[in-house]
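Issue 218. Parser rejects a valid record. Input:
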Amino acid sequence: MSENLKLLESLLIALALGVLIGAERGIARVRQRVEEKTTFAGIRTFTLIALLGALSLHFTNYFGKVFFVVSFFGFILLVTAAYIITSKKEKDVGTTTEITAILTFFYGALCMTEYRLVAIVLAIFTTVILYTKKPAYAFLGRITDEEFYATLKFAIIAFVVLPFLPKDDYFGFFNPYRIWLIVVIISGIEFVGYVIMKLMPPRTGIAIIGFLGGIISSTALVLNASRESKREKMLTNSLAFSSVLASSTVFLKLILEVYIVNKAVVDKVALPMIIMFIFGMMGALFLWKRSKAEEEITTINDLKSPFTLRPALKFAVFFAFIIFLVTFANKYLGVSGVYVTSAIGGLANLDAPTVSLASLAYRDITAEVATLGIVIAACINTVSKAGMAFLLGSKEFSKLVILSLSFPIIGAILYVVVFMYS
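Output the parser choked on:
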């Protein structure tokens, strides 16, 4: 009886995956206003295709592997015939639905194996790819030749050169493979935010602008907003809100970076970063209420793609330099030297000292030292953004930003007093 239930469970999962993919194809057909008879397959057909793949693999237990091969090739002939007929009738040479049908057959078959979870993930991913056709084309339309060329160069160096970099430590701190891997990871996180931003409509809400700006580059957003505040004084509150929100979101980004670099220390770093984020959001909420009456802004559109070669190389050099300084300071100057180095690093770039301290935690420095160093870097970086707003922004803009950015600094001080020295 248990074998029957196990078989039924696998078949039901295959059917569910077929329904999922078939529903997307049906929605696409409705969008295009295509009549049912002129399409190759809809929700019912895809459901049956997944079931066919599952049963074909199941019956190999009784008729041998040749049964699955024959079923698959028979299915391919059916798909080919349907494609020839529909392409001639509709004058459409697209093969998306046909390829999806073949994949659905394999996903159904995978549901009968120990790789059932792989089938589920791939089916969901396939549905996402199919459903996001319009946003994908919109994204491609907004990508410039320069951005694509820069991304291509970086991808080659990241995924072709990376595997061949030495993995040994030199001088006690310099590991080419680890350094470049971290650069690729951080650039990848920022690039995801940039892609999401590109998929958004040209005029997006200031909350989205601020959030994505914190992922891509909070410093660049504050810089752009500060300059814009002198030209667009009617948008002062909105520009200040997006700047503070970006400066607060970056604390969540740091938690993700620490988790990727060194999971063992993330529980200690997460608490102060969450506190700073909450306090930062308190300041942002104050500005949000003031900005409701203003128009939407497009400041984030001035941000450049972070997935480019030159900034990545600069970050790699700076990251290696920070690791060297932290290692040297800890060895010859003690804990105070580490804190001074963290402050200096945070003044220029928050990612480098964060990942440096996280990677050295439990190895060259304690988790407590690494955590406090990251907090110091975050505070100094926040202060530098406030200074940027003061130097480059309008008087009203700088006053609002400086006041609001004092909130996460207060949160950091409370963390140090209550949790580290209580």
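Fixed in the parser; the record now loads. The chain has two domains: 2-131, 146-420.
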